[in-house]
Amino acid sequence: MEEAILTRGLTKKYKDVCAVENLNLSVHRGEIFGFLGPNGAGKTTTIRALTGLTRPSSGSIWVSGFDVEREPDKVKKVIGVVQQHLTFDLDLNLRENMELHARLHHIPLDERRKRISELLEFVGLTKQSEKMVDELSGGMKKAAMIARALLHEPTVLFLDEPTVGLDVQVRRRMWDLIRSLSRSGTTIFLTTHYIEEAEALCQRVGIVHQGHLIALGSPSELRQAVGLVTVEVLVDGAYTRYEHFVDREAAIKYVQGLSSDVKTVIRDSSLEDVFVKLTGKKVGEDDADA
Amino acid sequence: MPMLETMRDIGTVVWVDLRFLRRNLGKTMALTLIAPILYLLAFGYGLGRGTSIDGYSYLDFVIPGIIALTAMTTAFNTSGLKLHVDRLFYKCFDETLMAPVSASSIIIGKALIGVLRGLLSSAALLAVALIFSPLPAMNLLFPVSLVLTCFVFSFLGVTVALLAKTHQDMTLFMSLVILPMSFLSGTFFSLSQVPEALSIALYVSPLTHACLCLRASALGQVFPWFSFLVLAMFGLVFFGLCFVALKKASG
Q1: A286: which DSSP letter?
Q2: What was the ipTM of the complex prediction?
Q3: Per residue in B143-170, pLDDT tens?
Q4: Interchain pair B20, A92: CB under 8 A
Q5: Which percentage of chain A shows pLDDT scores above 90?
């Protein structure tokens, strides 16, 4: 069976800046794949290329076995896309926005009505259906974006920062939603700023930095590569240094070798440690040169 | 079958804009009628009272010009500004781009709302104008020319909206192209009144040809088929440019 998403040498240049360079990626059917990277690393550009909104400068992309450049309509039928920013027509109410999407995807009238009601129910927005989109809260808007993207029953769902700016409770509900979609067989490609989100949801993650894919694997595989145990060392009471070790024994040995007045914390490593080590910065810090 | 699908998709694209129009019909009509009625009063009644051009009263002469002007600005603004907002502010145009619909459905659908509103405003203005001056010699080529005019400037609006990267681009085009065109295309004066060199330059403007067609058919003069053809050519070129612009918009 072919991969849900496959890219070969995907490159996108804007004038002299290379947003994505020679990206080779394969996402298996049915998995939740997390695409991580600092701001400006090329995440959104990649999603725009995968969904046909941006033409790559070179390279090829297949989604569900269809060539994105040569068979755009076949690709459009099988993908659902939730962009990072809101993409509602604010002159329409919620139901009309849903209806527009359903019509654009040629869902027949009866089925259209049924699916719109079902999906609004699914994300808990039945009561809001006649409201103008701007009257909804941030979380509701995001949920509505997902509901809309599911109308035509896509087999590959792209979620660009699906939980950014949401309350923690809403974010967790969103995670449940994403998991339940995954269980029903939908492949999910998501980008996120929240490393713990990727750790909680994704079977595999790819880390992209300055347009290059620099790591790929399951969260635990990536942790293993860096070290399963992390030691935080508070240096001069001013900043923290992170050291990674294969196991607790090695970590303890290291700590014992430090002078006794240095403050240390020994803990399991996380995907965030992997990320920081590989990209050389904390997530959320802007990448000034990208 | 592809033909039917295209028709259905055009319907979908224009359905959204019709919803919007229906919600704001009163406001939009008032907005588009204020300027032309002011022109009509100022130029037709004030300035031009008692003067005549090419053997017609100035009022009779200027009404078709103002209708051409209204058709142009309304068609351009409606399809252009709505698409501009969809693309750059609501960002909902991406949703249309990611749907399995053809480029021609999107372009025609987005242009149709401009045509529709251009026709609505022109018809309303004509109704007002007929109170002042009955224009008994008007023939069927008038509505035909009017529809063509609306299509030409609607496609131009779609092209510009697809190419504009910022709101400034949009207003710049309106100030540099649309505004000069509205005053210099024989809307308020006869091209026979201006020096020949200038009048040749004015023939480059599609609105000049729209004016000539509308004026001839409103006043029952010999119909300028050449201008009609030129206007149609402009329409085809702008329609073609829409495709180029749409490709660029998804670069």
Answers
A1: -
A2: 0.88
A3: 999 999 999 999 999 999 999 999 999 9
A4: yes
A5: 68
CB within 8 Å of B195: residues ≥ 6 apart: none
pTM: 0.89
In terms of DSSP bridges, do strands A229-235 and A263-268 run parallel, antiparallel, or are they unpaired?
antiparallel
On whether any CB of chain A is under 8 Å from the CB of B248, the answer is no
Q: In whole angstroms, how large is the CA radius of gyration of chain A?
A: 21
Report whether A56 contacts A11 (CB < 8 A).
yes
A73 part of contact set with chain B, CB < 8 Å: yes
Torsion, Cα A220 A222 A227 A231, to 10 degrees, reads -90
The amino acid present at B50, given as its one-letter code, is G
Q: Give the single-character DSSP code of A203.
A: S
Q: Going by CATH, does the domain composed of A5-217 fall within 3.40.50.300?
A: yes
Q: Residues B23-59: pLDDT tens digits?
A: 888 888 888 788 888 888 887 777 767 788 888 888 8
pLDDT band at A290 (very low <50, low <70, confident <90, very high): very low
What are the extents of the domains in chain A? 5-217, 228-268
DSSP conformational letter for B193 = G
> Nearest by CB to A103, which of B12, B23, B90?
B12
Q: Quick count: other Cβ atoms within 10 Å of Cβ A263?
A: 11
Q: How does pLDDT run across A115-161, given as a tens digit for each residue?
A: 999 999 988 899 999 999 999 998 899 999 999 999 999 999 999 99
Answer whether B250 sits within 8 Å of A89, measured CB to CB: no
Interface of B with A in 59-88 (CB under 8 A): 86
What pLDDT was estimated at residue A1?
A: 59
Q: Tell me what pLDDT residue A20 has.
A: 92
User: Whole-angstrom Cα distance, residue B11 to residue B20?
Assistant: 14
- Distance CA(B36)–CA(B26), nearest Å, equals 16
Query: In chain A, which residue's Cα lies nearest the Cα of B88?
Result: A87
User: B4 Cβ partners below 8 Å, 6+ apart?
Assistant: none
- Closest C-alpha to A156, from A123, A133, A188: A188
Q: Which residues pair with A160 in a beta bridge?
A: A191
The shortest CB-CB distance from A100 to any of B8, B16, B100 is to: B16
Q: What angle do CA A270, A271, A275 make, to 5 degrees?
A: 125
The amino acid sitting at A6 is L
Contacts of A51 in chain B (CB under 8 A): 98
Beta-bridge partners for A207: A36, A215
What average pLDDT does chain A have? 90
Residue with tokens 């031009």: B48
Distance of CA A17 to the CA centre of its chain: 23
Beta-bridge mates of residue A6: A26, A62
